[in-house]
Amino acid sequence: MRALHVIILPVRKASPHKCESARDLVRAYVGLRKRRFSRGPAQRQIDCLIIGGGPAGLTAAIYLARFRLRTIVVDAGKSRAALIPRTNNHAGFPNGISGKELLERMRQQAYRFAVEFHYDRVERLEKATAGFLATTQSRSVTARSVLLATGVTNIAPRMPAEVHDEALSGLQLRYCPVCDGYEASGQRIAVIGTGARGAKQAKFLRSYSDDVTLIGPHGPHELEPSERDRLNSLGSRS
Ligand SMILES: Cc1cc2nc3c(=O)[nH]c(=O)nc-3n(C[C@H](O)[C@H](O)[C@H](O)COP(=O)(O)OP(=O)(O)OC[C@H]3O[C@@H](n4cnc5c(N)ncnc54)[C@H](O)[C@@H]3O)c2cc1C
Fold first, then answer.
1. Does residue 175's CB lie within 6 angstroms of at least one atom of ligand 1?
2. Is pLDDT at 39 greater than 50 in this prediction?
3. 119 vs 136: CA distance, rounded Å
4. What is the mean pLDDT of the segment spanning 174-180?
5. 203, 191, 208: which is closest to 227 by C-alpha?
6. How far is the CA of 84 from the centre of ligand 1 (A)?
7. CA 121, 102, 92: angle at the middle one, nearest 5?
8. Which atom in ligand 1 lies closest to the alpha carbon of residue 180?
9. Rounded to the nearest whole angstrom, what is the distance from the C-alpha of residue 23 to the centroid of ligand 1?
10. Is 132 helix (H, G, I), strand (E, B) or coil?
11. Which residue in 125, 113, 155 sits closest to 52, CA to CA?
12. Helices assigned H by DSSP within 38-189
């Protein structure tokens, strides 16, 4: 006898606007699934091509595959997460986890639900009759929908690559104030940046250390007088 599974839908307490969005999302996927199952298996198309296999792309892939949508991830293999020596803010890993291991675990989880994963770079994306046509370095992929999870690129400070890499793995150079501020508590902190964004990050890091210096990446700062005054009043140097 087959086991009976009872699924109880949660009662949402979110705002009516959020309820609408969630309902719309479910409707969209139910629509995609109905159309897919109305075709024979031989004609089965790719429902979603995810460009980018970092944490965002892989999380989406796991969800989509569990909606029983045929999902392919194409990843150029340059996830910023792979640079994380050890993250301590990811729930579920009380002793932290390296970015590489986290990505590997996410990939394994995606494979479990039959997500196809290709190391490749999408060079071109265009609208096709039934969705999108993506051209990679080695193949063409037609998919009914495309999810862009291509992340952002670090702007590395000007220094020799080996010095950079050693400082990164030795936890002296960091790229994410929100992620790593805690780890720098009570230490001398130099923030490479300028303008409103640099001033904001220096101000944020001031809550972890009383020794924060904002360093302009290209020499002189582009700070408004009010930003400079604010940094001075907090006791930060610039
Ligand atoms: C040193 C460092 C430490 C960090 N520490 C933490 C931390 O402790 N905690 C935390 O939460 N976050 C941390 N972050 C931030 C975290 O790494 C990013 O927020 C996360 O990687 C973003 O995930 P993503 O999937 O959006 O992008 P990414 O991880 O950057 O992945 C994007 C992927 O898309 C691929 N791609 C791009 N263009 C194409 C294309 N045309 N075709 C195919 N593939 C393509 C890229 O190669 C890449 O693999 C840190 C970042 C760095 C650099």
1. yes
2. no
3. 10
4. 94
5. 203
6. 9
7. 145
8. 8
9. 29
10. strand
11. 125
12. 55-66, 99-112, 161-169, 177-180
**The predicted structure's pLDDT at residue 227:** 85
Q: How many C-beta neighbours within 10 Å does residue 99 have?
A: 19
Give the whole-angstrom CA distance, residue 170 versus residue 158. Answer: 18
Instruction: Indicate which atom in ligand 1 lies nearest the CA of residue 83.
Output: 1
Radius of gyration of the chain (CA): 23
Averaged pLDDT for residues 210-235 = 87
Q: What is the pLDDT of residues 46-79, one digit of tens each?
A: 999 999 999 999 999 999 999 999 999 999 999 9
For residue 59, the tally of other CB atoms under 10 A from its CB is 15
Q: Which residue has the higher pLDDT, 227 or 99?
A: 99
Question: Ligand 1 within 6 A of 79 CB?
Answer: yes
Per-residue pLDDT band at 224 (split at 50, 70, 90): confident
Are the CB atoms for 146 and 101 separated by under 8 Å? no
Q: Is 228's C-beta closer than 6 angstroms to any atom of ligand 1?
A: no
pLDDT of residue 41: 41
Half-sphere exposure of 73 (CA within 13 A, CB side): 30
Q: Predicted confidence band at 130 (pLDDT cuts at 50, 70, 90)?
A: confident
Residue 137, ligand 1, Cβ within 6 A: no
Higher pLDDT, 222 or 117: 117
Q: Which residue from 150, 171, 175, 192 has its CB within 8 A of the most atoms of ligand 1, so it is best to mutate?
A: 150
Instruction: State the average pLDDT over residues 16-39.
Output: 49
The closest-lying atom of ligand 1 relative to the alpha carbon of residue 151 is 27
Cα-to-chain-centroid distance, residue 30? 26
